Amino acid sequence: MSRIPGYLKSTILTRYLIKSFIVPFLIGEIFFSFVILLFNLRQLIQAALEKGIEAGMLMKLSLFSMGWTLGMTIPMSALLAIILTIGALNTDQEIIVMRAGGIAYFRIFRPYLVFGFIMAGILLWYQMDVVPYCMRMVGVMGDRIANYNPTALIEAGQFTALDEQKSGARHIYVDSITTDNIEKTTILKGIQIRKVENKGGTNKLTELVFAERGEKILKNIENRENNSGGEQVRALRLYNGFIYIPDSGSKGFEKIDFKDDGYMDINMRENFSRLESAKAEISIFEMTVTQLLDKMDALEDTVANKDAIIHIKTEFYKRTALPFAALILILCGFPLGIINKRSGKGAGFGQAIILIFVYFSFYLSADAIGVHTSLGPVLSAWIGNIVVFVFGISLYIIRTTDILWKIKIPSFKFFKGASGKT
Question: pTM of the entire structure?
Fold first, then answer.
C-alpha cells in the first residue's frame, strides 16, 4: 500500500485549516460591518429616509462606508474567526489528533500566519489609497443628503436648519404643520425664519422673517441666457407676513411687508459644491498619502502648528499600523482558541471582544496620546500594536511549548489551563 507524500499531506491539512476558518471569518465580517455601519450612519440613513432620497444614493452611501470600515473589520473578523476555529478543532479533539500525529503547533498556525501577512500587505495598500477616497465620498454623500430637500425635515415646535454654509445659516420655526389632501400640499402656520451670517468673524442676525402661513412648492427658475424654463427647485412660499432687515445707518431694522395678495418665496437650492469643487477643504482622514506628506511639509516650519503637525503625522503612521492588526490579532487568537477547550464559543467571542476593545482603544486614542505625551507620532500610532503583540507572543509561547510555565509564572486567571500538553 502506497503512502501519501508529505507535501500532499501538508496541502490537505492547509486546505482543511483554511476551509474551517473562512466561514466564521465571513460571518464576523458581516457582523462587525453591520454594527459599525449602523453606529456611524444611523443619522444619515434616518435623514435620507425622511427626505425620500432614492435607493441608489443610499446604496452608494453604504458601499463607500463599507469601503472605509473594511480596514477595521477585517482584523476584528480574523481574530474572532481564529478563536472560534481553533476552539472548535480543540473541542472536537482534532488538535490532539494532529499533535499525536507529530504535527507541531506552529504547523497548525502557519496557514493563519500566512493569511495574516497577506492581509497586512493588502490592507497597507488599501489604507493608503482606497480608504481616503471612500472617506471623501462618504463626506460627499453626507453633504448631498444634508442639502437634499431640507424642507422635508421641518417639524412643528422646533427650529430646523434650512441651509448651513460657512458664510451663515437659516433656521425655521413653525407652530403647526397640516396637509391639504385635496391640493396635495403641506401647509405651515406660525412661521419664523432667522438668517445668521458670519461677518468679520462674528455671527450676526441679518434677516428675520415672520409669516402667518406658508406652503412647500416646486417652482421653475427661468434661465435668462436662453429664455428656457431652467431648473426646478424646492421652495417655501410664505403669505401674510413681513421681513426685518438690519439698517446699518440707524442701527435699527427696516420692515418690509408682504400682505394681502403678496407672498415671499425662499428657494432651497441643493448645494453640492463639495463634490464639484476639487479645491474644497478636506479633512486629514480624506487625504491621500501624497496630500498628507505635502501638508506636513507645509506646516513643518510653523511653530504655531505643532499640534497640527503631530495630528497629521499620527494619522499617517496609523495608516501603517492598522494593516498589521490582522496579523497581530491572529497571533493572539491562536493560543486563546487552544485554551478554550471546554469554554465553548461564548467564551471565545467574549475574549475576542475584549481584545478588540483594548486594541482599538489604543488606536483611536493615538491622536490624544501623541499630543499630550512625549511618545511621538510613531509610538502613539503603534502603541496598540506593540501592547497586543507582546501579549500575543507571550501567550503563544506559554501555550505552545511544553515548559511548565505555571512553575515559573504566578497563577493568573487568563492563562488558566495554559501549561502542559493538550
Answer: 0.67
CA 144 – CA 321 distance, rounded (Å): 32
Give the CA radius of gyration of the chain: 30
Extract the runs of DSSP E, i.e. beta strands, from 59-201: 160-165, 168-180, 185-199
The last residue of a domain, from among 205, 240, 269:
269
Phi and psi, residue 172, nearest 5°:
-120, 145
d(CA 61, CA 47): 13
170 shares a domain with 134: no
Residues 30, 130, single domain; the answer is: yes
Instruction: Identify the CA nearest to 78 among candidates 126, 134, 120.
Output: 120
Q: What are phi and psi of 161, to 5 degrees?
A: -75, 130
The pLDDT-based confidence of 272 (bands split at 50, 70, 90) is very low
The residues near 241 (Cβ < 8 Å, ≥ 6 apart) are 191, 209, 210, 211, 212, 257, 258, 259, 264
Based on the structure, what is the number of domains in the chain? 2
255 phi and psi angles, rounded to 5 deg: -105, 130
**352-366, pLDDT tens digit by residue?**
888 889 998 888 888
Average pLDDT of the segment spanning 145-149:
64
In angstroms, rounded to a whole number, what is the distance separating the alpha carbons of residues 313 and 377? 6
**Structural domain boundaries, residue 329:** 6-145+288-415
pLDDT (tens digit per residue) in 313-332 = 888 888 889 999 999 999 99
d(CA 75, CA 325): 6
β partners of residue 225: none
β-bridge pairing 202-223 and 228-247: antiparallel
pLDDT at 71 over 90: no
Phi, then psi, of 181 in degrees rounded to 5: -70, -25
Task: Give the three cell numbers for residue 81.
Answer: 474567526
Element (H, E) at 116: helix 105-125
Strand partners, 163: 170
Picking from 295, 300, 293, the residue whose alpha carbon sits closest to that of residue 320 is 293
Q: Are residues 346 and 384 in the same domain?
A: yes
Tell me the CA end-to-end span of the chain in Å, nearest whole number.
32
Cβ atoms within 10 Å of 367's Cβ, excluding its own: 19
